[in-house]
Amino acid sequence: MTPRFPADISIPLIHPRSDKGYTLIRADALPDTREIRADLTSACNEPLIYGWLFRERCEGRPYDEMNASSFMVWMHRGWQERAFFVFALLSPCGRLVGVLDIKSAEVEGAEVGYWLSQRHSGLMTLALSELQVLAGQAGFRSLSARVRPGNERSLAVVRRAGWKDTGLEWPVNICASSGKVKKPQPRPGSLVPEAHSAEMRASAFSSLRVILP
After folding, report:
1. Which positions ≥6 away from 194 have C-beta within 8 Å?
2. Residue 80 carries which DSSP code?
3. Structural domains in the chain?
4. Taking each helix axis from N to C terminus, what angle separates 124-138 and 152-160, rounded to the nearest 10 degrees?
C-alpha cells in the first residue's frame, strides 16, 4: 500500500507560547523563490540546526543557496514519486521556518525527521502531532524516530508528542568501524544490548515509535 495524502494541505497551528498563527503545508506547495531559499539558508545555518543536521553533509562549509536549491528539487521529487513526503511550517507572514519529513513510504515504521528555526522554538511538538494525524489518514500505521545522542531537545519533542522509547540503536559510524566493534558487528539500526559498555551505549541513537490510529 502506498500512502496517499491530500493534494492540498493547509493546517493552521497556534503557537503555544506566542498565540501567533502558523501553517503546516505540503512542501511541494512552496514557491521556489529567492525568499524561500533565503529562509532555508538562514535557518539551516543556525548553530543548533547546522550542528546536528548539516555540518557533516556540508563538510563544515555553510549551508548555501545551492544546498537550498537542491532541497527544493529533492522534496519535489519525493512527492512526485511518492517515495518520501516533506512538509513545511510557515510563519504568520508566510516565511519558511521549519520542515518535517516522512523519509519513506513504508507504512510500518517510516522514519520521521524535522527541524525548526530557533526564533520560532516551541512549535514543533504541535506540528509533529498534526503530522501524525495526517500520516494516519494517509495510511501509515506507525512512525519511528532516531535521535542522536545528546540531542535532548529533539528527544523531548517526540516524547511530548506521545512517542514511546523502544531502546537504543547502533549508529552507522560505529557499525562500520571494525576497530571499535568486535565481530560479528551489529547491524545498523539494531538495538544495543544492555550488556554493552556505558561508553558504547552513550554513542547510540535513541529509538522511538508511535502507533497511529
Report:
1. none
2. H
3. 10-168 (3.40.630.30)
4. 50
Average pLDDT for 54-73 = 97
HEC secondary structure over 94-155:
CCEEEEEEECCCCCEEEEEEEEECHHHCCCHHHHHHHHHHHHHHHCCCEEEEEECCCCHHHH
Residue with cell 562500520: 176
Residue 144's CB is within 10 A of a number of other CB atoms, namely: 20
Is the model's pLDDT at 198 over the cut of 80? no
Rg (CA), the chain: 18
For residues 200 and 192, is the Cβ–Cβ distance under 8 A?
yes
Confidence band for 191, pLDDT divided at 50, 70 and 90 = low
pLDDT tens-digit readout, 141-156: 999 999 999 999 999 9
Residue in this structure with the C-alpha cell 516533506, named with its chain if needed: 86
Q: Hunting for cell 521556489 — which residue is that?
A: 32
pTM summary value: 0.87
CA neighbor of 13 nearest in space, from 90, 106, 104, 82: 90
Burial, 42: exposed, middle or buried (Cβ in 10 Å; 0-12, 13-18, 19+)?
middle
Tell me which residue has cell 494517509: 138
pLDDT in tens, 82-120: 999 999 999 999 999 999 999 999 999 999 999 999 999
